[in-house]
Fold each of these.
Amino acid sequence: HGLVARYRGMKFATILTDLERRLGAPPPEGFAARYRAHVTSLFETSLTAMPGARAMLEALQHPRCVASSGPRAKIEQSLRVCGLAPFIGDRIFSAYEVGSWKPDPGLFLYAAHAMGCMPADCIVVEDSEVGLAAAAAAGMRAIHYCPHGASSEDGCVIRIDDHAQLGEAIRALASGRHR
């Protein structure tokens, strides 16, 4: 769980570099390819949507997209396996295609532009510190989704731990009840 918290939302190459530094040795030859293949297999057999995600997306009246540090194929697989792909369609933005990884705001700014939105009108729902930093740098409001009790240092306005809370959090941000 500590590794997930440490590396959530980061570029895979950055994670590997940090692990090499911490372990004092490079990963074994072919590690990255084996890791990606293993994750792909696990996703197919074990990945499920977070509780309440489908109901939240069904009720959400706002345009939405996915802007992720992951490769497009991984994002598409995740959405398909979890049954959430119809709610997103082709509105997928991958850091690998945009060339900008969180905490740099480039991915979010690109997604906003592609969606025809001004950054200040966007609300980012994020589960990572680097994503919250990217949202702030892009001039977007953020909601920190932290279902496992994790807590951001200071990078967001509202924290939720259940998808059922998202509608109220969006209304609070839209009405100005939070900064």
Amino acid sequence: MKPLQIGDKLAKLPLIQGGMGVGVSLSRLAGAVARAGGIGIISTAQIGFREADFQKDTKAANLRAMVAELKKARDIAADADGKCQGLIGYNIMVATKDYADYVKTAAHAGADVIISGAGLPVDLPEYVTGTDTKIAPIVSSEKAARIILKMWDRRYKRTADFVVIEGAHAGGHLGFSRDQLENLETLDYDHEIREIIACKALYEEKYGTKIPVIVAGGIFDRADIDHMTELGADGVQIASRFVATEECDASDAYKNAYINAKKKDIQIIQSPVGMPGRALRNEFIKELEIARKPITKCYNCLEKCEPRSVPYCITKALIDAVRGDVENGLVFCGENVDRIQKMTTVHELMQELCYGIGS
């Protein structure tokens, strides 16, 4: 596999570990992926949930934890000579309240990359001005890619450093309608990927630069990676498979929920973010089908969340799950979670995916 060049930054392997919140992909996982030569991504979603003042001042706890987790990830990623063959960055949801402050904190902390979705990151370039952080929008359609790239061109006289295309088989929040997600066999997503690649080529020509395309969503093994390469992708992003690794920051109970998952356990739900999402069916989801869960504490995590009307608090649900209460919390997952059969390590997984060793 060829290295992934993003501007003046280089990762030995063209594989991004997808950002997973709350607390699933923090410094341990991202650092291990970068040490192996990939791009490790820390999720900023309520990243400070373990800080002492999280309940009192959630935003301050989160911003402080962002800086600390990046530093820890860099320490983990460094080899004996203090060098790193990969890159480290953040996934920041556009739907995050005070989104600009999170992006600015990430960039000024020295993040190699920022990947941003769960909405259109139309103002992302403004928030990284004066830094060397590379930025990528997450898009699920040619229309979304066209809107973002056109707006960045017009407003900021620049283009994306890379683009992440997230398909309908991904976990977490999804840029598709419920009907599309429940009828996956009708989607010709290979065509959409080619259309997005053609769209970004216009801006490559205008700015005289290479804009790598990374494809995400349902990518499980080397055969999937090879298929995306054939379509014209420069790399892939994989999230779910990294949950069942020793280095993943989630609890063992959370990891085992993935390992024990069956196809029948996967369900499309509605998130307070305003988007559908893919998660494991458990007692939490079953109870939501009967009644909403009243919110007693608001963490001000989402820009457009209305605590009096949303079905549940996504912060509490995700924190409960990552700490180990996988029946009464929200466990996001990818479409292929049922194919994960055992615990492994980041090194072993990267060897399998990138070199076919042990597969």
